[in-house]
């Protein structure tokens, strides 16, 4: 195995067929160090993950494979930034979901941890009313708070309307793709995608040349909701893909909103049902969204700039104090802490357990930790 950066090792593994986020996480949790994955017997890989033997046998030589070298060339050709889960620029909100991708392909200069991201989704065959209300709500959001970031899926219909309105109002916007960044789907949104990348970002978990096949759109939808503090369903028919995003939103414990429509309109069967079943909050204007979203955005308060009291830290080791300092600034994944402090995961887990027993931190789902007090 040739020498390579952590990022390149993650890319090489991500290219292994069938090694999705959950299997990827199982391997990292089991071996602790990424290098051990490349030297592990393929039969052990298969046993741990359920990955088929043929795919497992590709791992030891993944860094020398043609597919990996081709991917690096495409990354350079299309000027793509690859963000891995160990970096502090990886979206904090995405870290919180169960099956977060270990790497993201990004086009555009964008800080995913700055702003108030809200997803807007709906029908591709959107009605005039749906598009008009989408525009009206986003324009009002822009007037109320310029930190709003509009997240959507770059499809025609409501997605395109949301992106275009955000750009018109000077808001940042993120387009999440169901394929690789070497080609834009749908092709008619190529110009729109370039505008999005210039003021926000295009993002995908899929390798550069991946085609947007049907199953990828479901996977894409969990990223749309995972990047956002809440999702707004503007229009959704009985079998709309927007309902999949709605389901992911509730599973990820994010806010879900729906715009009501005529009871007998095929455009609103899905949204009306979400409201009827109590799964989504009925909205009529932008204020309805912000009154739910804003209370969850002020968690990083002035304590970031306050020194730690000596009484609280005098009994801590230096590493314990550093861990607590990181968690006072933001809620992060255990692997991010280990990467920043350059300490082994097993040692970090001992520190996290001690701090949790002392009541200084709490663990959340997905190996996310947060400070209890400021």
Bin the helical content: 40-55%
Strand order of the largest sheet: 1-2-6-5-4-3-7-8-9
Question: Which consecutive residue ranges, at least 5 long each, have pLDDT under 50?
Answer: 296-313
Query: Which structural class do you get from the secondary structure elements?
Result: alpha/beta
Q: If you had to describe this structure to a student in words, what would you say it looks like?
A:
The protein has 374 residues and is of the alpha/beta class. Helices cover 45% and strands 13% of the residues. Strands 1-2-6-5-4-3-7-8-9 form a nine-stranded mixed β-sheet, sandwiched between helices. Strands 10-12-11 form a three-stranded antiparallel β-sheet. Helix 8 runs parallel beside helix 9, helix 9 packs across helix 10 (190-199) and helix 11 (214-226) crosses helix 12. It is globular and about 60 Å long. Residues 296-313 have low confidence and may be disordered.
Labels describing this entry:
374 residues, alpha/beta, 3-stranded antiparallel beta sheet, 12 strands
Summarize this entry quickly.
45% of the residues lie in helices and 13% in strands.
